[in-house]
Design goal:
The protein is mostly helical and 165 residues long. It has a single domain, classed as Arc Repressor Mutant, subunit A (Orthogonal Bundle). The protein is built from 7 helices and no strands.
Length: 165
């Protein structure tokens, strides 16, 4: 892979294909546009620095996603408690806009109360539409751990949603 040999143009081409999904995931995790952009920028720097150590170039998308998720979690932890901005996790349905907006706001409030790690799990599962084995790979955790953490994150989300009702 030319990017591993230091070709900056090749690296930019790799980023063009992966940065959009990384931003969407980061946005759900950190709950803020600027913080999501910072997380993706940090992920890109980390990826450039660590690219020579990537053993299997075919795994670039998964490898970069993992770096981006970790950068977003790190960013959310740094900013925890300092800012609480609106989250737009899902597009509004056109059927009943007011009901959809109310549900989206309820979800945003509930997600805001979850830890960055729980938001990362949910973002990977529902925003990135990854299956549990892919989530485990993205986070660098065992499959069983990913299953149990996702189950707990969903339970916490349900609890938060029920508490608001």
């Amino acid at each position: 892979m030319a990017a591993q040999a230091g070709d900056q143009d090749a690296f930019v081409a790799l980023l063009d294909g992966a940065a959009g999904q990384a931003y969407r995931l980061a946005r759900v995790i950190v709950r803020d546009d600027l913080m999501a952009q910072d997380a993706v920028q940090e992920a890109s720097i980390r990826a450039w620095r660590d690219l020579p150590r990537l053993r299997d170039p075919e795994k670039w998308p998964q490898w970069y996603r993992r770096i981006a998720v970790r950068a977003a979690i790190d960013q959310a932890r740094r900013e925890a408690g300092e800012r609480h901005l609106a989250l737009d996790p899902l597009p509004a349905s056109r059927a009943d806009a007011s009901e959809s907006i109310a549900r989206r706001d309820e979800l945003a409030v509930a997600l805001r109360r979850l830890s960055p790690d729980d938001r990362a799990l949910l973002a990977l599962r529902f925003a990135a539409d990854l299956e549990v084995p892919d989530i485990a790979e993205a986070l660098g955790i065992p499959l069983g751990t990913a299953k149990s953490r996702l189950h707990r994150a969903l339970a916490k989300l349900r609890t938060e949603l029920e508490a608001d009702r």
